[in-house]
Amino acid sequence: PSFSLLLRGIRREHLAGLALGQVLSLLIGGTGVFSQLLSSNYNVNMPTFQSFLNYFVLCLVYSSLEINRGKWWSTMKSKFYIYAPLALIDVEANYLVVKAYQYTTITSVMLLDCFTIPCVVVLSVFFLRTKYAWRHFIAVFICLSGLVILVLSDYNQNSSIGANPLLGDILCLVGSLLYATSNVAQERVLKDVHKDEYLSMLGVFGTLIGGLQLILFERNEMLDVSVWSLPVILCMIGFATCMFTLYSLVPFMLSRYGATLFNLSLLTSDIFGLVAAILVFHHTPSWLYFLAYGIIGVGLVLYNYGRDARQDST
User: Fold this and answer.
1) Separation between Cα atoms, residue 105 and residue 95, nearest integer Å
2) CA 301 – CA 293 distance, rounded (Å)
3) Which band of pLDDT confidence, cut at 50, 70 and 90, is reported for residue 216?
4) Is the pLDDT confidence value at 4 over 60?
5) How far is CA 214 from the centre of its chain?
6) Mean pLDDT of 273-290
7) Half-sphere exposure for 144 (CA within 13 Å, toward CB)
8) What is the DSSP string of the chain?
């Protein structure tokens, strides 16, 4: 009877959150599949352009909402010095992670993204004054141990799984650090502003920064007519659609269901990445990958066990 009551309680309070979490996890897996297809199958190297599409759509949709409310221009004038640096961090985080697909595999990129969590812990302690229990720091150490095993696995693999797996891992780790910085900043900003304002300004400055970077570094690839086959265009659209939907839903997920359920849900994106690697890209991961996945899984579960760290924050 008590188990039945617990089960009903979980369904009542968390079923919608679990479902939304899996949608987000699937979207992250989708961005990985489209990026790997562009890099491996079609030899397309335009990481800035991939993310530029997302920022452009964010700008169009959420700036329209803010303009209708009469807030867009006043926000632009008074808060540009806040949103411009945040957009720069976000743009470069996306650039580095997408770039990593040219050098390593979808399984490694998906799993290395977990490095965002320990980075968020450290940044939250210093900038959000969040208090963590000892289990959180133990969990971070466990996750880092799994990441070390994964990097060693890629280092020992031959070059057939990627042009330079170790370089790809480094790009992904740096990108994850920038993602963590962006996430902590987003959490702080969203305490004071509506998500539409944040996404509008992120779209505006992300479009400006990404557009400039695109002109400087990727204009030749973008203007190469031979690159733009129908499969490439569909992959670009698929990536942008996943990213736009992800960016639109994450603020709602965090505010409605909390970081605990969000972090646990994203763990399954690694499973989606593994399935895609086997079925779509015909890559069989090393046994060290499964060991690293298990260790990181234990760390994430331990991190999310019990109360959310934000409940201890001052």
Assistant:
1) 16
2) 12
3) very high
4) no
5) 21
6) 75
7) 10
8) -HHHHHHHHHHHHHHHHHHHHHHHHHHHHHHHHHHHIIIIIS----HHHHHHHHHHHHHHHHHHHHHHTT-HHHHHHHHHHHHHHHHHHHHHHHHHHHHHTTTS-HHHHHHHGGGHHHHHHHHHHHHT-----HHHHHHHHHHHHHHHHHHHHHHHS-GGG-S-HHHHHHHHHHHHHHHHHHHHHHHHHTTTS-HHHHHHHHHHHHHHHHHHHHHHHSHHHHH-GGG--HHHHHHHHHHHHHHHHHHHHHHHHHHHHHHHHHHHHHTHHHHHHHHHHHHTS-----HHHHHHHHHHHHHHHHHHSSS-GGGG--
What's the pTM value of the predicted model, to 2 decimals? 0.82
For the chain, the maximum distance between any two Cα atoms, rounded to a whole number of angstroms, is 66
User: Which of 88-92, 173-177, 228-232, 285-289 shows the lowest per-residue confidence on average (mean pLDDT)?
Assistant: 285-289
> Cβ distance 117 to 232 under 8 Å?
no
Summarize pLDDT for 96-106 with one digit per residue, the tens: 999 998 888 77
Residue corresponding to tokens 């569909």: 234
Residue 311: both structure tokens together: 């409940």
Token pair belonging to 303? 């991190």
